[in-house]
Amino acid sequence: MSSSTAPSAPTARIGRPLAAWAAWDWGSAAFNHIVTTFVFTVYLTGTVAADEASGSAALATAISVSGVLVALVAPVYGQRSDAAGAETGRQRRLGWLTAVIIACTALMALVAPEPSYLWWGLLLLGVGTFAYELAQVEYNAMIYRLAPPGRTGRVSGIGWAAGYVGGIVLLLICFVLFLADSPVIPFEGEGTAVRVVVLVAAVWFALSTIPVLRMSFPFPPPPGDTEAAVGWAASYKLLFRRLARLYRDDRHLLGFLVSSAIYRDGLTAVFTFGGVLAAGTFGLTPGEVIIFAIVANVVSALGAVIGGLLDDRVGPKIVIVVCLAALVVTAAGMLFASGATAFWIGGTFLSLFVGPAQACSRSYLARIVPPGREGELFGLYATTGRAVSFLAPAMFALFIALFGAQRWGILGIGLVLLLGLATLIPVRAVAGSAAAGQAAVRT
């Protein structure tokens, strides 16, 4: 594609496909926010399980098993997805995986508030999480067919922002209608409202998936990875050969995968433990925590869009480095702060920089992946993230144990972010402008 034609016709055609693609991110918030973060897992550990301690331990075990399976399967799955070629279509595979997630979410409505249902709920959560991570491999790899040169950051940022906003809207709807102290639609019986909410989440995700399955891409697919057209056993052998080749020939790409795995775990921990810290260390009430969660998602969505625009102007690495540095400084300040006002200020700043760092990480990888190997490298992206997903929670718990107060968990998260920043700095940035860098990769 010549430089003279790249900005015009393709750019004019990306609006509708981009909206359809981002709709999947909007809908996936049903699984992220309702199932894995704010509603269903809380119901499992606090209501279904015999006690919260054993329920939390069982939940951690289920998530760990699912994570190990993702780490083992995702890179080879992505590799074989690349080999399947354009005639099979990422949309079809994304559709089947999303159907599994939706089915698991809907079946969670059958989980009654009795201990005997705990493992049934955990099984559905584990299978849904596994399918979700593989679906992310297909979804992320679609960026190549949506973003013209110089627009990768903007496309990724819009997708992340859609996910945040979708989560906010769905949480507000479910909270007001079913989960508030005085809901619009009250239900009798313990846990009934939660079981209705997961059905709403399943329908929400299903409707939001339709646009991406029906859309036409503005750009043709890259050539299929014919080398990966082998059986599953041979796929693992090929994977190890390619990892060795990556270590030998492109350590910067390998370095980015390792670094991003570390700091992405820290970014996840900011939201995972934010509510816990808000209530336990800074004194926010449960209602105030929910309000803050909504505000935090709005700010993160705004940050993701702004970060995507900056990504296309200055490159993704600069945006990520600035965001990580800001997160480390803010976390250090919050370590010695107290009171609700301090949390609102510090927490809002943290939220502002989390979104751009996440969006630009996906964009960075999309820029440097060799054409035809998008699925494989995004599979490795998922795998490396899962491989160190224990790090931030372990550091959070370790520093609480060492110093005897919950606030010291902030130091653990901050150190993980600092380690991710330190390992990212030596990674060579994409040469030149965003458009030139992407073009260089494609040639």
TrEMBL record:
It comes from the Bacteria. Signal peptide: none annotated. Keywords: Membrane, Transmembrane, Transmembrane helix, Transport. It is a multi-pass membrane protein. The chain crosses the membrane at residues 21-44, 56-74, 94-111, 117-135, 155-180, 192-213, 253-277, 289-311, 318-337, 343-365, 377-402, 408-427. SUPFAM superfamilies: MFS general substrate transporter. Pfam families: ATG22. Residues 252-443 form the Major facilitator superfamily (MFS) profile domain. The keyword Membrane applies. The keyword NAD does not apply. It is found in: Cell membrane. This is MFS transporter.
